[in-house]
Request: fold
Amino acid sequence: MFTSQLIEKFRQLPTPFYYYDLDLLRQTLARITEHGLAKGYQVHFAIKANFNIEILNIIREAGLGVDCVSGREIERSIKAGFRPEQIAFAGVGKTDEEIRIGLDTEIYSFNCESIQELEVLNRLAHENNKMASVSIRLNPNVEANTHRYITTGLHENKFGINPGKLPLLFDLIPRLENIRLNGIHFHIGSQITELRPFIDLCNRVNSLQNLFEEKGFLLEHVNLGGGFGINYEDPDSEPVPDFKSFFEVFDRNLEIRDGQQVHFELGRSIVGQCGSLISKVLFIKDGINTDFAIIDAGMTELIRPALYQASHRVDVLTSSKPPKTYDVVGPICESSDTFQRGIRLPELERGDLVAIRSAGAYGEVMSSGFNLRDRVKAVYSHDLD
Ligand code: LLP
Reply:
């Protein structure tokens, strides 16, 4: 992925920075087109994974829509040229101001997560003389086998409406005059690397959809959410996730009605592998058990290891010396500010460059200003051509 010419260019740039390989992003989108869009599936990019305009432009040009979870994400999507009818708006805690942004923008769908939210949305739509299209997010109680901080489809999670509330919902919806029900929505979690949870999800959706139909609610779309995982251990062996197998699960298991649209909201699997965090070694320090490579990127630039014990591969770009064992750590005064512990890497020295891989999703967007650190910059492959 990193040619010697590219590494030479990296040496000229101030570190740390995110580097995005836009060719890889385009290849990824081509596979989604081939295995998903070409079959009629609609894919909304979960903008929370990466909201950079350059990235959004490429995603929009590939024909995807966008899935937002805040008013500002809706505004950013419009700025990036997405049309209102390509925008869905999810989230358990939408403020009145955010709901009004959605209404004014006339987005395709509010993905509603509670009975109270439906009532508030109806009232605000009425006050603004609008009709809101709504998809009901249901909690399917499906085990996603992922980190407990990023599982979302179990009863104990805060997301979605418990199907036990369906009788109440069926009674309420016809009485909400400024709401039009157009679909049902699910999202069971993130970084799901097996297909089984998606098969289970299809089975749950099939039976829940029947319940809606029995009550006379015909659904324009079903939205299966996102969550498809990527290979963090060995990104070069699988730079593009296996979208063929992913979409085949739904071809085989989902019961779709005539003319019904099927939507997905993929984030990580689209942008994860195209981004790397490039950082410089500041100091090498001998420890008792291991040496420390102290680099100039920290949890302020990439919080995933500190927050989810996530493991991102660290590649050394500028040394090919015999390996030594290191803890690769950031400069922040927190012990959790550690990228890798006890890994074998070519011997490092001050000034060497490393790439922290698979950081395109939930990397730059989750960076923070802790310690008054400078906002991390982005560099795109076309900038360095
Ligand atoms: N749809 C909804 C309703 C979601 O909540 C999410 C992610 C997605 C779609 C996109 O999921 P994806 O395809 O990216 O897995 N910050 C965490 C991940 C949190 C995901 C939250 N929801 C991480 O860095 O692992």
The chain has a mean pLDDT of 95.
